Amino acid sequence: MSQHSLTDQHGLTNPPANIPQSTNSLPSSSSNVIRNFIGGQFINEEYINEWIVNKNPATNEVISYVPCSKEETIQKAVDASVQCWKSKSWRGLSEEDRAKYLDLIADQIEKRIDEFALAESRDTGKPITLAKNMDVARAVSNFRFFAQAVRQQSTKAHLMSNKTINYTTRRPAGIVGIIVPWNLPIYLLSWKVAPALACGNCVIAKSSELTPMTAHLLAEVIEQVKLPSGAFNLVHGYGKDCGSAIVAHPKINVITFTGGTATGRVVSQMAAKHFKKVSLELGGKNPMVVFGDYDVTKAAELAARSGFLNQGQICLCTSRIIVHESIHDEFVEKLKQLLEKNTKIGNPLENTTTFGTQISEEHLIKIDYYAQLAKLEGGTIVTGGKRAELQDESVKNGAFYTPTIITGLDFKSRTATEEIFGPVVTVHKFSTEEQALEMANHVEYGLCAVVLTNNLSIGHRFSDELESGIVWVNTWLLRDLRTPFGGMKQSGVGREGGDYSLEFYSEDKNICINL
Asked: How far apart are CA 292 and CA 308, in angstroms?
């Protein structure tokens, strides 16, 4: 019996797994077949007999066929990385020379920004303007930032009273396995690849099976700039086969994973067998707390962005909005008006579109499941709560869902505590600061939070008590790449960003010399 045929305790049909279909036969034309990138080149693997069918979620058209890589392919990537490591062709370069390569990669992505944006939009269903101005632009920034960061990093020395000196060196950690999700493909891939390479590591990266195209383009860029063979390898496939093989391989020293908490738990258990360094950025159910002294219009405008950017498919989106009772009703009405007036749902490739598709039909079904569950839990759908109906024939059957506001739920309900990862926010009412803090910290996640208040004493005090790795006061998604990024509780383990990334992708060594 399939997962989709099962029902929950409410009688609702459980949503299906968000896994693309595969095929054992390729079309006669192989122009849209992508390959794994190993040892500095795209390789043909005749033994691969299964291919993932990668579709555009807005049109359902086939974009590409992606190899279902398994252990044999991962071993090839490891062999290429080991050879690169032993030869010192990458780790033996100076920090300045490695930084120059990163700058070259950034330059080439920037030159091809429209191509990257088109690929990202078709793969994910996000508006092409968002893909260009946020995702691809950030990829360029990531490579340039870490090129500068590695140039400027320093180590310590300690002179002892007996004329002995201790000094610290920082060496690459080894072979790094990088696994990224489907919501921000090139954005998050570059966030991890750039510092890993900057530190001199060899990389084996895996994109999501749902969104392989910008990772493929990045491999083209890396081939073009002639990065030493084996320094960067890209493999494609399902998580259960390809991803598991990366995590389990004993010669891969470091694992950095962004994805769901359930998968992250499995990754952590597998990596522990070999005592690998692990960084996990996992699920979130982030609160926005709006105090009564804050401007209601500004709060609604920020919530319209923080709850619904990228169709709510960003780990930092605020899906729980906790509003003081004195402004609750006004806030809900203003947010409703903003969403209904300003949301332009349509073909993601049109520049006027502001709201694209969910990543897949299966994910849309999951989102709608929670909208229906909310009603059974006593919630009220203020707006949205259904599939968007479009007149454009080219995208009529796409995975479009309406921005959704739900009120009246208990803050402990399933809809208000489980990660939906879509354009759905629940709005809750509070009367005291203590009550707001209890509501904000109630969930098992702790990635980020937003606090809106004109009283900075409250903002500072309240932020300090929030169980979140990142807190924004009177803003959202304002990122300084030097700061630590990561979550508390079941939102992950470890921190990346700036020096935190350089430390994670390196090993510090103390050398003591008797003078």
From this structure: 23
